[in-house]
Amino acid sequence: MLFTRKQSNMVDAESALPGRDTEMPLPAKHEVLRTPLKGPFPQGVDTAVFGMGCFWGAEKIFWEAPGVYTTAAGYAGGFTPNPTYEEVCSGRTGHTEVVLVAFHAEQTSFEEMLKLFWEGHDPTQGMRQGNDVGTQYRSSIYWHGDAQHKAAESSREAYQAVLTQAGHGEITTEIAEAGPFYYAEDYHQHYLAKHPNG
Question: Which residues are catalytic?
Fold first, then answer.
């Protein structure tokens, strides 16, 4: 029962699960890009963290984009250190499913990554994405530095104007400074490359 409830309210730090010190073991290379999943990344490679619902499809959007060095599925925005997938799905860690995107700043830009983010999901659904319901599916941008913060806020305003004009609702995307990124289990990494019909 603990791991099957669909939470629509955020847990607080005091009520969050305790987690663990041990990080998830990772594959040596990206299944598609054949690059390392974990930094330090080469000079000129910047990172961004996006939550767009289930991380399987979201990750594929980014690994297919020009200029992307590597991607990884993981968890961010919560309290529990090194959570498991089942713990995140319980709604008791505060995390959302996210994708870490590392990209060559000379070949693409954070603004291009934001475009993929906004166009890749419905950011107006609150604690859900389609049939996936719970706090772990909320839309989110976790920024690094002032430039990413300003770009994220500006893009939200611009996209909201387009949505409003088209008769759609208010954007519910969480925009916050990036905290710890915890890699998801090996079987979640590059899932749709391993299971194209997943």
Answer: 54
